[in-house]
From TrEMBL:
<comment type="pathway">
    <text>Purine metabolism; IMP biosynthesis via de novo pathway; 5-amino-1-(5-phospho-D-ribosyl)imidazole from N(2)-formyl-N(1)-(5-phospho-D-ribosyl)glycinamide: step 1/2.</text>
</comment>
<keyword id="KW-0963">Cytoplasm</keyword>
<feature type="active site">
    <location>
        <position position="229"/>
    </location>
</feature>
<dbReference type="GO" id="GO:0006189">
    <property type="term" value="P:'de novo' IMP biosynthetic process"/>
</dbReference>
<keyword id="KW-0067">ATP-binding</keyword>
<comment type="subunit">
    <text>Part of the FGAM synthase complex composed of 1 PurL, 1 PurQ and 2 PurS subunits.</text>
</comment>
<feature type="active site">
    <location>
        <position position="231"/>
    </location>
</feature>
<dbReference type="GO" id="GO:0005737">
    <property type="term" value="C:cytoplasm"/>
</dbReference>
<dbReference type="GO" id="GO:0004642">
    <property type="term" value="F:phosphoribosylformylglycinamidine synthase activity"/>
</dbReference>
<comment type="function">
    <text>Part of the phosphoribosylformylglycinamidine synthase complex involved in the purines biosynthetic pathway. Catalyzes the ATP-dependent conversion of formylglycinamide ribonucleotide (FGAR) and glutamine to yield formylglycinamidine ribonucleotide (FGAM) and glutamate. The FGAM synthase complex is composed of three subunits. PurQ produces an ammonia molecule by converting glutamine to glutamate. PurL transfers the ammonia molecule to FGAR to form FGAM in an ATP-dependent manner.</text>
</comment>
<dbReference type="InterPro" id="IPR010075">
    <property type="entry name" value="PRibForGlyAmidine_synth_PurQ"/>
</dbReference>
<keyword id="KW-0436">Ligase</keyword>
<dbReference type="GO" id="GO:0005524">
    <property type="term" value="F:ATP binding"/>
</dbReference>
<keyword id="KW-0315">Glutamine amidotransferase</keyword>
<dbReference type="Pfam" id="PF13507">
    <property type="entry name" value="GATase_5"/>
</dbReference>
<dbReference type="InterPro" id="IPR029062">
    <property type="entry name" value="Class_I_gatase-like"/>
</dbReference>
<keyword id="KW-0658">Purine biosynthesis</keyword>
Amino acid sequence: MCFMILNEYRPISPITIRPTAIKLILMKFGVVIFPGSNCDEDLIYVLEKIMGQEVVRLWHKDHDLQGAEFIVLPGGFSFGDYLRSGAIARFSPIMQEVIRFAANGGYVLGICNGFQILTEAGLLEGALLHNENRKFICRNIYMKPQTSNSLITAQIDPQRALKIPIAHGEGNYFADPEVLQSLKDNDQILFRYCDESGNITPESNPNGSLENIAGICNKERNVFGFMPHPERAADALVANEDGLAIFESILSMVKV
Ligand SMILES: NC(=O)CC[C@H](N)C(=O)O
C-alpha cells in the first residue's frame, strides 16, 4: 500500500457531510482498542457518523490490521495507566503490526493515551510526564497549528486557535534538548497550547509541557500524536465543532 500527500486537492469518492463542508475522501480507519481505552466509541462515532468513514475495530491482541488504511490509537487508560500511561500497551501484539505499518509509510495517529503509547513504542520522540500540578486536568484548552506541512494541520488556518478538551494526568510533554532542537529543525511540532486569541504564553500551558507543545509528528510525517481530544469537539450536539478541522484536514489530504 502506498500513501502520499497530495500537493493539490484531489478527492476520491467525494461525500458532502454538511452543507458547508469541503469534499472529503473515504477511507477505512482502524481504531485500536486496549483494555481500558475509553475514547474509542466517541472516535468511531465521529469517524462513521459525522465524517462518513468506514471503521474497523481492532482488538489489542489482534495480529491483523484488517486492511485499515489509517490507524488511530484512541484515548483512555490502557491497562489502568499502570507503571506509566502507555507503558504496558506498547507490548500488546497489535503494536508489532502498527509499527510495521508505520515503517511502511502507513498513517498512524495517537490521541491522548494513544500519543502516550506511541512515545512508549518509540514511534514518536519524547515522553508524556505527570502534569506539572500533579492533578488530572479535564477542561477546554486552545491550541494552534505550528506547521502546515502535515496532513493533520495542512487545511487549518495557522492563526486559528482551536478550542479542544483535554482530560489527562500525564500530558506534560518532555524531550531532551537535542530532541527538541531536531523537532524544530524538522518542523515536527504540530500544535502548541495558546490562549483564546492565539497567544502562546506560559499561562496558556495547561500541564507544563515543554514550550507549550501539544502534539508532534515523526520525521517521516506519517505518525502523529497530540494530547487534546478533537473527537469530543466534533458534533453540534456538544456545542463545539472545532475538532472537525483536524478530521477534515486529514480527509482532504490523504490519498489511498
Ligand atoms: N484521556 C486520556 O486518554 C487519558 C490519558 C492518560 N490515561 C492520562 O491520564 O494521562
